[in-house]
Amino acid sequence: MNLWQEYTPELVTDLYEFTMAQSYLQEGMDRLATFSLFIRSYPGDRTCFVSAGLEHLLELIPQFRFSGESLEYLASLNRFSRQFLRYLENFRFTGTVRGIPEGRLFFKEEPFLEVTAPITEAQLIETLVINVLQLETLIASKAARCFQAARGRSLIDFSLRRTHGVDAGVKVARASYLAGFDGTSNVLAGKLYNIPVVGTMAHSYITSFPSELDSFYAFERAFPQSTVLLIDTYDTVHGAEKALEVARKMREEGLELRGVRLDSGDLVQLSRKVREIFREGGFPQVKILVSGSLDEYTIEELLDDGAEVDVFAVGTRMGVSADAPYFDIAYKLVEYDGRPVLKLSSGKKTWVGRKQVYRHWDEQGRMKGDTVALLEEEVAGGEPLLETVMEDGKPLREPESLNTIRERFQEEWARLPRELRQTRSRSSYPVTISSSLMQLEERTAQEKKKTELDAPMS
């Protein structure tokens, strides 16, 4: 069985989406519903989120159609009526999607996607929406923190072998490049998204040769234009001295050693010693690449302690967002048939109605604060963030290039107040709720309490 072919969007769905959908149809509930997607809180030291994954979602939603094999499988569960299966046979998403473009920043409790469609359609795509947008936003938000910590130095994604599956590894490469990384070791991601691919060698390559120096010369002969040597297999300082010998021979041949990689040990002291060896040897331009359990915290500590690093190869901790491996993300019904809808559950508040998020800027062009308002409101001086990207189930534009999104992120990130870009920031970004939305929320909550909590039981 080819698993890649079996992963069809229509079955990337939790079972209860189907059971609710059948009940909606049985009850004649086919009116327009709006669902808001938002993240309730910041994990760890986060102060913001980077929007990512929207382009993939817009690609997948039109493919949300039920094949014969999918319908046969659903029928085999002996849960669904023939009427419901016939409905699925002709299913097509016909709704509207509004979202914050990829690369832009948003904040907790702000809707960064809203879906408006007949309730069955909007319900059936819920799991797909959350699954796609959570992962890519999670990784882009983690990668952005590494981008900040690196202080202008290059970053490479080395995470593929430890990401949570092949698809996740590809999406991690894309999301990290979107958020400021310069390349990836992931060859498939390089092919799919035109991301620069980067790689050196493993310790197994070094140990397979009679000596470390033999392995260095062999690699230089194979890749004379892009020689980067791994120098910590036996002893980093001695490895650097041998790499210097290779660099001298290459220069005699009109070539240049591009760099060396350190993967273990005291990276601060070793990187300084390696830099000294190459500087005194007449090769100050040789790049020092470091890898090994890196993330924004270790990158910041290395640089604070004076490490001599040109390139950070960041792997597992970024690829799985190790310190915050998930978001408290929710896709909640906020309007049905023109009626505002909310939850009253403790700690799981939702804001009613279709909404827009407006961004305000200060005189220096930095982000000053956001306002969450009702869709029909106009907020003076605010820039609306949610854009209509799909109508009648069809994307309204061609997919954006990854480089366009990457440039948008870098422009947006530079306009985030400096204190919010810090790795361990204790500042918070101001997000206010418009008075109209607040009033509608309070009125709806009072009415719902009266009908649901105060009404006598029959």
Helix content percent band:
40-55%
Low-confidence stretches: none
The rough form would be described as elongated
Percent of residues in β-strands:
15-25%
Number of extended strands: 19
The biggest beta sheet reads:
7 strands, antiparallel
Describe this structure in words.
The strands form four sheets. The protein has a seven-stranded antiparallel beta sheet with strand order 13-12-1-5-3-17-18. It is 41% helix and 18% strand.
Ordered list of secondary-structure elements with their pairings:
Blueprint: H1 3-6, H2 15-26, E1 32-39, E2 49-50, H3 54-60, H4 68-76, H5 82-89, E3 96-99, E4 105-106, E5 113-118, H6 119-124, H7 126-149, E6 154-157, H8 166-178, E7 183-184, H9 187-193, H10 203-207, H11 212-222, E8 228-230, H12 236-252, E9 259-262, H13 267-280, E10 287-291, H14 296-304, E11 311-314, H15 316-319, E12 329-336, E13 339-340, E14 355-361, E15 367-374, E16 383-384, E17 387-391, E18 394-395, H16 402-414, H17 418-421, E19 431-433, H18 435-453
Parallel strand pairs: 6-7, 6-11, 8-9, 9-10, 10-11, 15-19
Antiparallel strand pairs: 1-5, 1-12, 2-4, 3-5, 3-17, 12-13, 14-15, 14-16, 17-18
Helix pairs in contact: 4-5, 7-8, 7-14, 8-9, 11-12, 12-13
